[in-house]
Design brief:
about 170 residues, alpha/beta, four-stranded mixed beta sheet, about 25% helix, elongated
Length: about 170
């Protein structure tokens, strides 16, 4: 029933080998496609880095962070750039989510912070805090500031700017 070919194999056995090889090839294609899809999807979930400039003047404002408000995802990084001399970025005491780590940059130096805990972070430039150099970072989808968020000892200009930034929620 089976004819032998020049190598002594039955043609039917050859056919089985060919089918097996094509099945393996198809399976390999599916694995490669799956891995490539996974890499592409994982790449879209990579955290982003946002840059914030520390400026002497931004538009009509003096002593300002640009932008003054950011909404980011948990795990994203914010890089504060000392564009103009004499600035730093640090958390305003008590104005960060529970469980979040405070940060404090040095004057005239860049600082990168990864924010993992959802909630609101109020940031100041210590040398220009009384002049209202503040910004707000909203991490996640939180839409409301915690009870008493703006209460306490805030310079009037800083409180005014923080209030305006929170209206953007």
């Amino acid at each position: 029933m089976f004819a032998l070919d020049q190598h002594g194999f039955a043609s039917m056995a050859y056919r089985c080998l060919e089918i097996q090889t094509w099945k393996e090839f198809d399976m390999l294609k599916q694995i490669i496609f799956g891995l490539a899809t996974g890499v592409l999807l994982a790449g879209s979930a990579v955290a982003e880095t946002y840059e914030v400039q520390m400026l002497n003047r931004s538009g009509t404002d003096t002593m300002a962070f640009e932008p003054a408000f950011l909404r980011i995802a948990p795990g994203d990084t914010v890089k504060f750039i000392a564009t103009d001399k004499g600035h730093n970025a640090e958390i305003i005491d008590g104005m960060l989510p529970d469980g979040a780590e405070a940060f404090q940059g040095k004057v005239n130096e860049e600082i990168e912070v990864q924010l993992d805990v959802e909630g609101l972070y109020a940031v100041k430039c210590l040398p220009h805090f009384s002049m209202g150099m503040v910004m707000t970072i909203a991490v996640g989808a939180d839409e409301t500031p915690p009870e008493g968020y703006l209460e306490g000892r805030l310079p009037p200009r800083a409180k005014e700017r923080l209030t305006a930034q929170l209206e953007g929620l």
